[in-house]
Amino acid sequence: IIIIGLLAFRIVNRLNERQQEEVQKSQIKEEIIIPVRTALVEKGEVNSFLKVTGVVEANETVRVTSEIMGQAKEVKVKDGEEVNKGDILIALGDEQIKIQVAQAQATLDSIQASSDKIKSGARPQEIKQAESALLQAKLNRDSVEENYLRMEKLYSEKAISQQQYEQAKNQYEIADVQYQSAQESYELVIEGAAEEDIKSIEAQVRQTKAALDMAKYQLKNTQITAPISGKVTSITVSTGEMVSPSIPLLSIIDVSRIFVKVGISEKDISKIKEGQ
């Protein structure tokens, strides 16, 4: 009985010790404090960046050339200078071309005046002059004809020589030709110019106008202007040098919009889109 009592005491004592250990462990766990940070949750965007290298290019580059051959009288711009569309870049010598324009204008004025005169018909003064010339030619022919008929009769009677007769005959023929010419001139003045004459003078007017337009075109192109606004670069001509059509004299870069040309790998191409 004593042994059983001792065993029971030890068992109970052991159970009490274990319970105390469990209680102590539980108390230790409750005393451990883990630090925690809190934040307000907000809706936003996550930015993603892609680093690449590329080449900066202008929106447009224009090579400026001359339309005509000539000598550079003055180069008005320098490399790197900003210009506006229409500004004069290079001035070519224009003295000879100005003379050509003046000559072509004078020729056109003269031919145009002749054309207007032909189309408008004769003036009253010209008609009177033609009538007077016709009357004078008729009177002269009648007088010479009368003398010719008299000499012809005398020749038939052998009263004059053949030479005298031939002379009278020639005078009559000349007077008759002069009368016929005066008659035709008078009719031309009254009727006006023939259709073919009008067409001929109109063709001359068109030809001289074309010559004048060409001279004016060349004069205009002695002033080489900027086709676009931008920055001047690559000037290849100096004052006094000859220039030829189609040979670049300088370039103008449009810097109003700049582009960067880059290479993107296939794996990154899906990460970008227009407007980013």
UniProtKB/TrEMBL annotation:
Keywords: Coiled coil. Residues 94-221 form the YbhG-like alpha-helical hairpin domain. Signal peptide: none annotated. It is found in: Cell envelope. The keyword Coiled coil applies. Residues 127-185 form a coiled coil. InterPro entries: HH_YbhG-like, UPF0194_transport. GO terms for cellular component: cell envelope. This is YbhG-like alpha-helical hairpin domain-containing protein. It comes from marine sediment metagenome.
